[in-house]
Amino acid sequence: MLSYELKERGVILVQGPDARGFLQGLVTCQMERVGPDRPAFAALLSPQGKILVDFIVVERLEGGFLLDVPADLLAFLLNRLNLYKLRAKVELSDLSDQLSVLALWGGDVSKAGLAGAFADPRAPAFGWRWIGPSEAVASYPRGEENSSAYEARRIAFALPKGGVDFAYGEAFPHEANMDRLHGLDFQKGCYVGQEVVARVQHRGLARRRIVRVHFADGAPPAGTEILAGDVEIGTMGSSVGPLGLAMLRLDRVAEANEQSVLLRARDGRELSVEPIAS
Q1: Which of 37, 60, 212, 256 is most buried, taking the most CB atoms under 10 A from its CB?
Q2: CB 152 within 8 A of CB 241
Q3: How far is CA 104 from CA 96, 165, 263, in A?
Q4: What is the DSSP letter of 124?
Q5: What local confidence, expressed as pLDDT, does residue 278 receive?
Q6: How many C-beta atoms lie closer than 10 Å to residue 189's C-beta?
Q7: Is the sign of the CA dihedral 12, 155, 183, 253 positive or negative?
Q8: Inter-CA distances, 13 with 77, 78, 122, 184, 200, Å
Q9: How far is 49 from 54, CA to CA, in rounded Å?
Q10: What 3-state class would DSSP assign to 189?
Q11: DSSP-assigned letters across all residues of 7-33
Q12: pLDDT of residue 277
């Protein structure tokens, strides 16, 4: 089994009698379904419906919920949650000095000896995650090459990474494929930004999406403009070798295909877009 310590992740503990209900009224997933072996992918949105922070949430056996979040947004998320806390019986703690996140794939996780490991809720076939004591995570056997192997696998599964594949505070959940990665629940009650998300879902207004792209000669750096002819249609995100992710205008991609217009990066490298799942 391959593994990789996700050092760019931090861990927040949300606990207290009102913890589940508190999160239920704020985040995009259905908290009633979250359990120790039932994690969820979720986000906290702005009132305008844009992603402020995305994270994985799982209930821990000792009680409370662990949020696996981007480390550079942990303080922001803690502050934002504290603003919403008001009189709720909830305690919020940064446990990043005690707990770390390990990604695993390519084997039988039941033989890994990691109690509490869970399938990635965005794409179960992608692999597993374990939130455990930092010393145990740091000492878990893994190869030096697993960092690039993890990134290549993430891109192959089209799992966007905030800050590279989309900009926090600017992208809507549908643009980051949260609807396709089980990060949005359209049956739950109100949460921050829900009206915008529901409108996009029911009207089919998501014109931009993150998609897999392939370059014959290797992908350009993140941030490179993608063109259809001379018209900019999107931006390059993360990549490993020839395969990458890009945020593209789907209608412009369709028009280019119909008119046999080549898609290329600003530096001239031609690309193809993988078929977009319905």
Answers
A1: 256
A2: yes
A3: 19, 22, 35
A4: G
A5: 45
A6: 9
A7: positive
A8: 12, 10, 21, 22, 31
A9: 13
A10: coil
A11: TTEEEEEEESTTHHHHHHTTBSS-GGG
A12: 55
* Cα gap 73→201, rounded to integer Å: 27
The closest alpha carbon to 22, from 72, 85, 79, belongs to: 85
Residue 275: partners with Cβ closer than 8 Å, 6 or more residues away: none
- Residues composing the chain: 278
Q: What are phi and psi of 124, to 5 degrees?
A: -55, -35
Token pair listed for 71: 């480390």
- Prediction pTM value: 0.94
Number of H helices, E strands in the chain: 6, 15
Indicate the DSSP class of residue 206.
-
How much is the CA Rg of the chain, to the nearest whole Å?
19
Q: How far is CA 52 from CA 9, 61, 173, 211, in A?
A: 16, 28, 10, 21
- N-term to C-term CA, the chain: 32
Can you tell me the distance from the alpha carbon of 147 to that of 11, in angstroms, rounded to the nearest whole number? 20
Where is 55: in which H helix or E strand? strand 51-59
Q: Among residues 211, 205, 276, which one has the least CA distance to residue 247?
A: 211
| Planar angle of CA 40, 46, 50, nearest 5 degrees | 75
Q: What ranges in 157-241 are assigned the alpha helix state H?
A: 194-203
> Quick one: tokens of 118?
């869970």
What is the amino acid identity at position 240? Answer: V
pLDDT means per 10 residues, the chain with 278 residues, are 95 97 97 96 97 98 95 98 94 98 93 92 96 96 83 96 97 96 93 93 86 95 97 97 96 94 96 77
**Are the CB atoms for 132 and 98 separated by under 8 Å?**
no
